[in-house]
Design goal:
By secondary structure, the protein is of the alpha/beta class. Helix content is 49%, strand content 14%.
Length: 317
């Protein structure tokens, strides 16, 4: 399959890189001219518009920071809908709104095309090695067709059901990751305030029932002081806001998520929307006067697992 890839941000550039590294015919498009030039130098073709890319490709992937941007790519001037037809596929890998991907997906289907919402989870460091997890919401026929692409970009691929289901599950998992980040920040700050050694505290949490994926990754860059996971506070707020919309539509009276939204709104007001998300701990550092750093932890996360062929995850009933 020939693939178009629109959006070479922190995650998108790594997913597109996995396709290119594994010999897929890739056409790319992004507003960052330096990033486009970098991929062109690596052998990617450069797209002129979303419509032109879909005419020349079997599938076009979007990996963009906000649902409104995806909407412009799909239904705007020179958008995907202008070239959509039988045999063509739109793959939405952005973290997006279930209702919005269904709305745009209905337009794609009306044109005879197919649509998949297929967000990723696991961090930029795992996207870089092709070892990230991917959710895919679509009909089974479309899933089987695009599975080779998904297993090239990711290690574990889960067919979640119809269009929109993957987006719901993605914002659920991002809600949990955000909750874990905030609790790790509080746990490390309390450990320091109570006179604990932060290196020992990290290990105690890691080997206990209190550990989590977030602790084993983000706590390390928090303690290093870089706080760099290539993810920013505005994106966290967007994702937990999307989770809140899912809950509101389902009439679930949440308690924790509204508080988390308030915390990140306060973090953005203090530090700026493009501040790295683990720096939400600065609220606690400023309130206590403590410095939650410790020597010996890495400045960024690196996936030390070798790249392996991906596979479909099936839940045995």
């Amino acid at each position: 399959m020939k693939v178009g890839f629109i959006g070479l941000g922190n995650v998108g550039s790594k997913l597109a890189g996995s396709l290119l590294r594994n010999g897929v015919d890739v056409t790319i498009r992004d507003l960052d001219e330096a990033k486009v030039a970098e991929f062109a130098a690596r052998g990617a073709k450069v797209g002129e518009s979303p419509a032109q890319m879909l005419r020349d490709c079997d599938a076009v992937i979007t990996c963009l920071p906000h649902p409104s941007i995806s909407a412009r790519v799909v239904e705007g001037p020179d958008g995907l809908l202008e070239a959509m037809g039988p045999g063509k596929i739109w793959m939405e890998m952005s973290t997006t709104d279930e209702a919005e991907v269904k709305r745009l997906g209905a337009m794609v289907v009306a044109k005879g095309g197919a649509v998949v919402d297929c967000p990723v989870s696991g961090g930029c460091h795992r996207a870089d090695t092709g070892n990230i997890s991917i959710f895919a919401g679509c009909d089974r026929e479309t899933f089987d067709r695009i599975l080779p692409l998904l297993t090239t970009m990711g290690r574990r691929v889960l067919h979640t059901g119809p269009i929109g289901s993957a987006s719901v599950l993605k914002v659920i998992t991002n809600f949990l990751a955000t909750a874990n980040l905030l609790t790790c920040c509080e746990a490390l700050t309390v450990a320091k305030a109570a006179g604990m050694d932060l290196g020992v505290s990290y290990e105690a949490i890691r080997i206990s029932s209190g550990t989590s994926f977030v602790h084993e990754t983000e706590s390390q860059v928090i303690l290093n002081g870089s706080r760099d996971i290539s993810f920013t506070m505005d994106l966290v707020l967007k994702d937990i806001g999307l989770f809140q919309e899912v809950a509101d539509r389902a009439n679930v009276p949440l308690e924790m998520n509204p508080l988390m939204i308030q915390i990140f709104k306060d973090g953005i007001a203090r530090f700026g929307e493009r501040e790295l998300s683990p720096n939400i701990i600065r609220r606690l550092e400023e309130a206590t006067g403590l410095d939650i750093r410790y020597p010996g932890f890495p400045a960024e996360m690196v996936d030390d697992e070798p790249e392996e062929p991906g596979y479909e995850v099936r839940r045995e009933v």
